[in-house]
Request: fold
Amino acid sequence: MDTPEWVVDKLTLVSAEITNRNRADLQKRLRMLRAQEMADATPSERRRKRAQEIAELEKKLG
Reply:
C-alpha cells in the first residue's frame, strides 16, 4: 500500500518546521554567547573587535 500524498506533505512540513526551530534555537544561543563575550571583554578588546569588523565591512564594500 502506497503512502497517501497528504501524509508525505505533512511529514515534509513537520521536518521543515523542526529544522527551522532548531536553527532558531542555535541562532538564539549564538547571539547570547556573543553578547556575553562582549560583556566580558575589556574596553580595549571591544575597540579591537570593532576595528576588525569595520575593516571587514569596508573591504566588502570596496
User: Anything to note?
Assistant: The chain has one domain: 16-61. The CA atoms of residues 9 and 15 lie 10 Å apart. The mean pLDDT is 95.
